[in-house]
């Protein structure tokens, strides 16, 4: 008997309104990456003008990360209770205010206040915006449009790095220009998001819940349901998946240059060249993930990505810490992470939770991940000093664990929504 296959819709068949929602909501990922990269670069450029010590820079970076985590926890819950549009409009107003303060900051207290506002608003915006994309995407396109947000995230990294090349020699003015870039994008997104209607799926779910329809299923909007039998498994699994895999990704982002210069004995410029090459490869991999995530072969790509990411962590162990092994580490991780890392977490976060619990769950797992990264960052330099092999062995185990978790458990979980 011949088995009929259901054709997967092509991206060129996607209606323009769905693209519009995906772009405007997905810009949360662009602004997330742009703010993080800009903060790191601008603080260095502000160093002399504001008399910043290395301790100040570290504290401000940690503050941005911590407020992002808190913002995700709070914003995700508010998005489920009061709607996607209301939250992501408010957060964009706050982001514009915060980036304006950082671009025009006359003093250190204003710099601190701006960092607090930007970190909180970016964190609060992200889970709500991802839920909006999933809920407004037509059937057959949901995974790809969520994955598109990761393409925007990669584009922001590239754009910010290029801008930094041009303004890096301007000192304080260069830092202000970098923050002005984020401010202009935030204002543009705010203006365009004002024309978006509320998520239709959230509106219907909220109306049914308020009317008492659907019984216990709709009671999933209560946060206590997140810790009940139905959702505690997916909730804990996704928190571990994202949090543990992010340890490897975060190590490359925060300590890659340190490993190149202090352990491999090469220059910052060489590290920059490798980072650029890795960014190009990661961008191409993110586009490929976007094209394959809605196909039946999704988990085949996931396993392939996990194997490549594990192989990347092994390179410095097998060949010693040098320029070539570190380059192989970053490039293999960039390819593998596109299919078995944060992108996959974003997709699963939309599929495994019902409408009125979706951004709450994603916000909570984001909170756990960012806080875990902040704690790990305190100990990573000590691991590097004690011997990089210990660090990379730890990362190998971490990525192997998340790949096994995704394949053996998460992929078997029933979808709660997005039928």
UniProtKB/TrEMBL annotation:
Pfam families assigned: MFS_1
Source superkingdom: Bacteria
InterPro entries: MFS, MFS_dom, MFS_trans_sf
CC terms in the record's Gene Ontology section: plasma membrane
Localization in the cell: Membrane
GO molecular function: carboxylic acid transmembrane transporter activity
Coiled-coil blocks: none
Transmembrane segments: 21-45, 57-75, 87-105, 111-133, 145-166, 178-196, 231-249, 269-289, 301-321, 390-410
Keywords: Membrane, Transmembrane, Transmembrane helix
Membrane topology field: Multi-pass membrane protein
Descriptive protein name: MFS transporter
């Amino acid at each position: 008997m011949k088995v009929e296959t259901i054709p997967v819709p092509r991206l060129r068949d996607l209606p323009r309104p769905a693209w519009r929602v995906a772009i405007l909501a997905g810009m949360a990922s662009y602004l997330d990456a742009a703010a993080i990269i800009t903060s790191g670069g601008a603080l260095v450029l502000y160093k002399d003008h504001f008399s910043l010590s290395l301790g100040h820079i570290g504290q401000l970076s940690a503050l941005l990360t911590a407020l992002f985590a808190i913002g995700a926890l709070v914003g995700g819950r508010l998005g489920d209770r009061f709607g996607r549009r209301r939250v992501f409009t408010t957060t964009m107003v706050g982001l514009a205010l915060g980036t304006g303060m950082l671009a025009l900051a006359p003093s250190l207290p204003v710099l601190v206040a701006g960092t607090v506002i930007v970190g909180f608003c970016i964190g609060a915006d992200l889970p709500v915006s991802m839920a909006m994309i999933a809920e407004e995407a037509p059937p057959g396109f949901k995974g790809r449009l969520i994955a598109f947000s990761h393409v925007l995230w990669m584009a922001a990294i590239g754009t910010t790095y290029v801008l930094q090349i041009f303004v890096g020699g301007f000192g304080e003015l260069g830092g202000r220009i970098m923050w002005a870039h984020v401010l202009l994008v935030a204002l543009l997104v705010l203006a365009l998001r004002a024309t978006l209607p509320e998520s239709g799926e959230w509106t219907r779910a909220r109306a049914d819940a308020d009317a008492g329809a659907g019984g216990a299923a709709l009671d999933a909007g209560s946060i206590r349901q997140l810790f009940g039998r139905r959702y505690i498994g997916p909730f804990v699994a996704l928190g571990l998946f994202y949090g543990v895999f992010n340890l490897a990704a975060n190590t490359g982002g925060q300590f890659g240059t340190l490993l190149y210069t202090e352990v491999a004995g090469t220059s910052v410029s060489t590290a920059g060249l490798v980072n650029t090459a890795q960014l190009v490869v990661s961008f191409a991999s993110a586009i490929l993930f976007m094209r394959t995530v809605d196909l039946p072969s999704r988990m085949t790509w996931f396993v392939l990505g996990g194997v490549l990411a594990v192989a990347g962590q092994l390179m410095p162990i097998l060949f010693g810490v040098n320029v070539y092994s570190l380059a192989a580490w970053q490039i293999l991780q960039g390819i593998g992470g596109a299919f078995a890392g944060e992108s996959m977490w974003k997709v699963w976060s939309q599929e495994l939770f019902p409408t009125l619990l979706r951004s709450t769950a994603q916000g909570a797992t984001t909170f756990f991940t960012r806080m875990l990264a902040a704690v790990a960052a305190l100990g990573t330099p000590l691991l590097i000093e004690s011997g990089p092999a210990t660090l990379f062995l730890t990362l190998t185990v971490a990525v192997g664990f998340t790949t096994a978790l995704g394949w053996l458990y998460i992929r078997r979980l029933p979808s709660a929504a997005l039928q």
